[in-house]
Write a structure and sequence with these properties.
Blueprint lengths: L1 H17 L11 E7 L6 H20 L8 E7 L4 H13 L3 E5 L4 H14 L3 E3 L6 H4 L5 E3 L4 H16 L3 E6 L3 H17 L2 E6 L8 H10 L3 E5 L3 H13 L5 E4 L6 H6 L9 E4 L11 H11 L6 H19 L8 H9 L13 E2 L5 E2 L2 E8 L2 E9 L5
Parallel strand pairs: 1-2, 1-3, 3-4, 4-5, 6-7, 6-8, 8-9, 9-10
Antiparallel strand pairs: 10-13, 11-12, 13-14
Helix pairs in contact: 2-12, 3-4, 6-7, 12-13
Length: 389
C-alpha cells in the first residue's frame, strides 16, 4: 500500500513539472519606458502622447501581452529639460525590466539622453525628435518615426518660394536644438533659392517679444517664420505682433501645430498661418479612425503627436513579441533593439508602412503643409520627406 502511495506522489510531481502553467512561477512583467514632457510648458503635448502610449499598452495586455507577460509603463517625466532627460534615462537604464523606450519627444532632450541609452543598450523610438544630428551621431539605439529637419526645412522653404512667393523672410527661433535647427534648415534652402532673409532669436522662457518684434517691424518682411517648440509661446508672439501693428504672413514647424495652444491661444490671429507637419493628420487616414474614436472618447481631443506615440508604442510591442518568440530566456534589450532595427513595412495608423534605414531614420514618410482655417488645420501640400535629406 505504501509503495502504491509513493508511486502516486511521484507521478503527481512529474505531472506538475510538465503541465503548462503549473509548477512554474509566472514570469515578471516587461516594461516600456515613456519619456516626455509630462509637466511644464509642453505638458499638453506630452500628456496626450502618454495617454496614447497607455492605450497601446492596454490593448496589447488585453490581447495577452508578450506571450502572456503583462506590459507595464514606466512614466518618465523629463519636463522638456535636457538635464532632467539625463536623469530620466539613468533611471530607465537601471531598471533591467525596461526593454525599450517611447520618446524622448524633443530634440534637445533626446540629444542629452542618448549617451545613457546607448551605454545601457536600451532602444528608443522617438515619435517627434527631428534634429538630423540625433541619427547622424552613430547611436545604434536611436530610432524615430518622424522625418528629419533637413527634410522639413527644405519643404518649408520650397513652399515659401513656390506658393507664398515671399521675397523677404524674417526667421525667429527659440535657441533650442529643434527650433534653431529647423530655422537653420529653412535658411539654407531660402539662401539657395535667392530669397532675402534676416534672423532673430528668443528663448523658451521669454514672454515679452517686443524687442525682437520691434526689429521685425522695421524690416517689413513678407513672411515671419517661427522656429519654436512651444505653440503657446508662438501664439503669444503672434498676439503681441498684432498689438504692434504687424500683420505679416506666418509660418512655423510641426512643433507649433497644435489647435488648443496655437489656434485658440492666438484668439483668431493665427488664421491663415502655415505650418509644416512631419506626418499626415491622422484624421485623414482611414486606418486611424478607430484609434481616434477610442482616444477622444476616453481622453478628449488629441493633440499633435498622439497618433505617432501610439504608433511608436505598437512598433516597440511588435519588436518585443518578435524577440520573445526566440524564447523567454533570451528575451532581453539586445534582442528588442535588433527586432526594432529590422522593422519593415509596419502598417499602423499613420497612413504609410514604416521601416527604418541603417541610421534609425524612418523611410517612406512625407512632409505636409497645413494652413489654419477657422479652429483647425487644412492640408495644402505634400512633399516627399527624402527631398532635402
Amino acid at each position: 500500500m505504501k509503495k502504491r502511495v509513493l508511486m502516486v506522489l511521484i507521478l503527481a510531481a512529474l505531472l506538475s513539472l510538465s503541465a503548462p502553467g503549473l509548477g512554474r512561477a509566472p514570469l515578471p512583467p516587461v516594461k516600456i519606458g515613456a519619456a516626455g514632457p509630462f509637466t511644464g510648458d509642453l505638458s499638453k503635448i506630452g500628456l496626450d502622447a502618454l495617454n496614447a502610449i497607455r492605450m497601446a499598452v492596454d490593448e496589447a495586455n488585453a490581447n495577452g501581452g508578450i506571450d502572456g507577460r503583462k506590459i507595464e509603463i514606466v512614466e518618465a517625466d523629463d519636463g522638456g529639460d535636457p538635464s532632467k532627460a539625463i536623469l530620466v534615462a539613468e533611471r530607465l537604464a537601471m531598471d533591467k525590466a525596461v526593454l525599450g523606450v517611447v520618446g524622448p519627444m524633443n530634440s534637445q532632450t533626446t540629444q542629452a539622453a542618448l549617451p545613457t541609452y546607448q551605454r545601457a543598450g536600451l532602444v528608443v523610438i522617438s515619435q517627434s525628435a527631428t534634429n538630423p544630428a540625433l541619427t547622424d551621431m552613430g547611436y545604434k539605439v536611436m530610432h524615430r518615426i518622424c522625418p528629419r529637419d533637413d527634410a522639413q526645412g527644405p519643404a518649408a522653404a520650397r513652399f515659401i518660394v513656390e506658393v507664398i512667393k515671399a521675397k523677404y523672410v524674417y526667421l525667429i527661433d527659440d535657441k533650442t536644438s529643434y527650433g534653431q535647427g529647423l530655422a537653420d534648415q529653412v535658411e539654407l534652402s531660402l539662401k539657395a533659392s535667392g530669397v532675402k532673409f534676416s534672423r532673430g532669436q528668443a528663448t523658451t522662457d521669454d514672454r515679452d517679444f517686443s524687442p525682437i518684434l520691434t526689429k521685425v517691424k522695421a524690416a517689413k518682411p513678407d513672411l515671419l517664420y517661427l522656429g519654436m517648440a512651444n505653440p503657446a509661446q508662438a501664439a503669444a508672439l503672434i498676439k503681441q505682433a498684432a498689438g504692434l501693428g504687424l500683420s505679416p504672413k506666418y509660418m512655423g514647424g510641426d512643433g507649433v501645430k497644435e489647435r488648443d495652444q496655437l489656434i485658440a491661444g492666438a484668439g483668431g490671429l493665427a488664421e491663415g498661418m502655415y505650418v509644416t507637419s512631419i506626418g499626415r493628420d491622422i484624421k485623414e487616414v482611414a486606418d486611424a479612425r478607430e484609434f481616434i474614436r477610442k482616444f477622444e472618447g476616453k481622453y478628449g481631443a488629441m493633440s499633435v503627436f498622439s497618433g505617432q506615440s501610439y504608433e511608436a508604442t505598437n512598433i516597440l510591442i511588435a519588436a518585443m513579441k518578435q524577440a520573445s518568440s526566440l524564447g523567454a530566456s533570451k528575451f532581453n534589450r539586445a534582442e528588442v533593439l535588433q527586432a526594432v532595427a529590422k522593422t519593415v513595412s509596419f502598417k499602423g495608423i499613420l497612413g504609410f508602412p514604416i521601416s527604418f534605414d541603417p541610421k534609425g531614420d524612418v523611410v517612406g514618410s512625407s512632409i505636409f503643409v497645413y494652413q489654419v482655417k477657422g479652429d483647425d488645420f487644412a492640408q495644402v501640400r505634400e512633399y516627399p520627406a527624402a527631398a532635402g535629406k
